[in-house]
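Example is below:
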Amino acid sequence: MKTKKYFVCNECGFESDKWFAKCPSCNSISSAVEFTADIDFKKNKKTSKTTSEITYLDEEVSIPVRIKTSIKEFNDSINGGFVKGGIYLISGEPGIGKSTLISQISKDIDGFVLYATGEESKTQVIQRYKRLNIENKNIGLIFENDIDSIINTISKSTKKPSVVFIDSIQTMKSDEFDSIAGSILQVRECSKKITNFAKNNDITIVLIGHVNKEGAVAGPKILEHIVDCVIQFDLEKTSGLRMVRITKNRYGPTDEIILLEMTSKGLIPIENMNEFFLNDYSNESGNTLTIIKEGNKLIPIEIQALVSKPVYGTPRRITSGVPLDRVLMISAVLSKKLKMPIESKDIFVSTSGGFKINDSAIDLAIANSLVSSLLEMPPLGPTIAIGEIGLDGKIRSVSSIEKRIEISKRLGMENILIPEKNSKKVKSCTPIKNINELVKLFKGV
């Protein structure tokens, strides 16, 4: 038997057999924590060759048992509900509503539900359940941040839980490791412990995880590899909207999203997105509609732009919901190709409700809004613009154009601007080849 010493960075999880003052991975100072491991070389030495079982595709396998929640849209997004024995991770910023979400989805789950929290008091949790009008007697609460104690409590419980919620994994710790709760090592090892326990006992585990300032899941990357499904919970707090996005799912597709509105009674799914985003739309200068693709959903969104004289010496570029780099690129193309004095102006671009968009198909709508605001001319009637703008000023084709146009016509829109390359597949739309043709659509230009 031999004892081996190794050092782990408490910030990023970097491991080394030598002590380090500065982590070579994340450059943090004095983050090395010493650990020891007993290694029995005789036991580890293989004395015989082993074989593995071969499985064939024609063998029958059992269909996973699904555990449905009280939110139908949530069940649909994870392909029918939680899989029995599956490990799920719900990540999001602090205060965005993760605890509210898991409280609501635990409302009507069949069987015993266990909610373990290491960051809230008994009064806070019970008051939240009462505020949401949840009185399910099959929900048990554990106020503990020791993962070993939680596992022992579940093992000795007379009721076997069907689902266990851990809120949050960053607050959990194990006394086996000399590190604070929330460190890379504690998050990794606690996740492994609860995962192994869940797989061996066929219990569904839902881990709640925080995100760092970059928006990624806080903790080691192995956390996302361990779990079966990663559910990202985000959107701007000021808008009251939340988006549930499935970024990893071993039991189904990963292009599902849900839009929720935060209210005093909890999170409510948005069923009619058309009315929600277009209620306040008016055909004025700087306003243009577009159809964006988020996951497997197509959503109509209003793009608003304001081009004005700079108040200060340096022109400002401010966006809300729209990527700043795309606005900078589009304004540069308009200035270069059309000789418009747009680069010397203040530019403000936003989406309805502050909805964050990463779809490049909004380029044409942004350009139309910028030109409309600069010229102080509204489009010729309510306009929907769909297309990507290249650096050469040409309008590039986009995906799902037929479905986008179908939604546009369902909204009663007749003035639909699309890339010329996409016009071969559809009719009754205005094809746009480049931004020069876009400007010609404005009366008197």
